[in-house]
Amino acid sequence: MKKIGVFTGTFDPFTIGHQNIADRAKGLFDLLIIAVAVSKLKHTQEEVAQRMTDIEKIYTDDPKIKVISYNDLTIEMCHREGAQYIVRGVRSVKDFEYEREQADINKQLGNIETILLFSEPQYSSISSTLVRELKFFGRDVTEFLPKVK
After folding, report:
1. Dihedral of the alpha carbons of 74, 79, 81, 86, in degrees to the nearest 10
2. Tally of CA atoms within 13 A in the half-sphere of 35 that contains its CB
3. Tens of pLDDT along 42-88?
4. Does the active-site annotation cover 66?
């Protein structure tokens, strides 16, 4: 049986912090699925497709990475994909508390284990929200985004 993990998020945008978590997590699994969550309230399908394309460009030649989108419960998507694990990145105590609660529910309702990977110090202040805000005010955000191969 293949060990499959799912790294979930809206990834709006996918930052170097996300890339670091994905790169570290893929060594734990036979396959790591980067699953872009669709929020019907926030994002159009077109925006989600672009985010998926951006992530796919980073991992073009990596057979251990698969990029998908989903718009149902994470545990339902995990069951559909045959995944036994959810991977989440944690930057702070605030993140930890939220992720612990989510992990408890995902285990209880879907029998899916959650693996938390702590952010490396140089990435702990980087968030998609920060990058979007900097970009909104006209700042160059390339240092916070992965380099495409």
Report:
1. 50
2. 26
3. 666 668 999 999 999 999 999 999 999 999 999 999 999 999 999 99
4. no
